[in-house]
Structure prediction request, 187 residues.
Amino acid sequence: MSDAALLLRAADCAARAHAGQTRKGGAVPYVNHVIEVARLVAEDGREAETVAAALLHDVVEDTQTTLAELERAFGTDVAALVGHLTDAPEWEALPRPERKRRQAAHIAEAPAEARAIKIADQTSNVRDVGRLPRGWAPVEAEAYVAETGPVVDACRDAAPRLAALYDAAVREARAGLAAARGGRTCS
Prediction:
């Protein structure tokens, strides 16, 4: 399968799997997030299989799609990367700080390609949260931004350029959140 065919099939699968889903706040289609993650990974110069995995990175975690289905459709390499990016089902009930701690420990052992996707994922998330969409209280948004730090720190060596984009997104998010608080830097 050509790179173009792989990427179009992955984009189609992600769009179908995430159909009707929105980002927290309800205004932005969820598929916009996976497209941004894939774009960041592609602009970092990653191979087509890595970009396809970026498009599919939340499909197993957030839909009824299984890793076995992804492996049949996209091959072992893509499915393995998605597997590294998928939280264990038992983590779902944990408080977000504990989930983030476990994500950091888990992703630290993953291949460089998965760690690059994770940085792009956290960058996209921080950008969204920094815009303080409906559904995010400022204190919750600030906590989320802070909680992404250890996850990205576990991945930095895999993609320094993506890590720099994440750092810029954190600065922008913190500035936007401070402005939403009226410029105060302390709660």
About this structure: The chain has a mean pLDDT of 92. The two ends are 53 Å apart (CA to CA). DSSP finds ten helices and no strands in the chain.
